[in-house]
Structure formats: structure tokens, C-alpha cells
Specification:
The chain is α/β, with parallel strands linked by helices. The protein has one domain: Type I PLP-dependent aspartate aminotransferase-like (Major domain) (Aspartate Aminotransferase, domain 2, 3-Layer(aba) Sandwich). Helix content is 31%, strand content 15%. A 5-stranded mixed beta sheet has the order 1-7-6-5-4, with helices on both faces. Strands 2-3 form a two-stranded parallel ribbon. Helix 3 links the parallel strand 2 and strand 3. The radius of gyration is 16 Å and the shape is globular. 39% of the residues are buried.
Length: 195
Amino acid sequence: MSFKSVVEFENKIAEFYNAPFGIAIDCCTHAIELCLRLTNQKTAVSPKHNYISVPFTFEKLGIDWKFESINWNDYYYVTENIIDAAVYWQRDGYIPNTFMCLSFQYKKHLSLSRGGMILCSNKDDYLRLKKLSYDGRVPDVFWETQDIESIGYHYYMTPETAQLGLDKLELAKNNTPKKQGWKDYPDLSKMKVFI
């Protein structure tokens, strides 16, 4: 199985957003997790009105976090340089020097059932995130032939998902996305799991 379609999809999404680099991930939640791991974050925030997997990820990583009343639209900052942009579809929309995490889940503008991406500015960060998402290995090389030197996670996007993204990309570029924000999500701070 070749990962050429994944690389092509990464490049085309990065180009659309005008970002230097893109790393295709299996979902936006894992994109956020990898950015938190890469930057070794100790604190984070979640809007009260948000998708539930984000605060669960903070719990999983042992991060000191809190809910905030943020009336966000399109995206919000998880930390000073990690952005949850799961519902954000905007040509040239990349914010320089950030880790912008996208979603291609079935309700999103570019609907692939599942998938996400991290947009970033720095080549070293790109390479480290790529290895983090591929079980600590170099993509497109049999892992058995590699002397893996660092921990990674099984969070990469499959070539089949990337190809679906390539097939749907032109239509997504030409259609106007639905605007989404805090009003589209329940108040998580009132759920029993967080009380």
C-alpha cells in the first residue's frame, strides 16, 4: 500500500489554507492530542460549548485544564499556539506559527467520514508530528526495517481516506461552507461526567 495519496492530500490541503506544511491524521481529536504532546503542554482551555472529545483528551494526558465561556466561531485557541479549527474551511485561512487542527468528519465541509489534519509552519515540527502519527516510524517504509527511536501513535490517515479527500476536494473548494461555532454545541460543563 502506498502513501502517495496521503502526501498529495496533505500538500493540497496545506496549499488551500496557505500553510507551509500539513500532516494528515485519522481525526481532529488526535491532531490536537499530538500537538499537545509535541509542545509538552501543561495547561489548556476548552470552551464550555465544544465537542466532548477535547476535554476528554486533556484528562487522558493529565493536563491541567478548565472550561471557559468562549463565544467562538470557526475556531478557538486550545493553547497560545494550538487551534481547534475542526469546523473551519477557509482558503488562505492558516494562521502563521500555529498548529491548526482540522476535521474531515462526516458533518464537516469536506466530509470523509473520518480524518483530520495539522497545519504548521515549521519543517522540524512537521517531521516530528509525521513520525508521532506513524507509530514513531518513517511513513511509506516497512516498519520492520526501521530502528524506531521514539514513541509514536497509530493516528495516521489511511491512503483510502486521503484518496476520498482528493476526489471530493474540488467540490469542497467551490462550495460555500456552513458557518459553525459555540451555539452548535451543548454546554459540556453541565454534564455529569465533568461535575
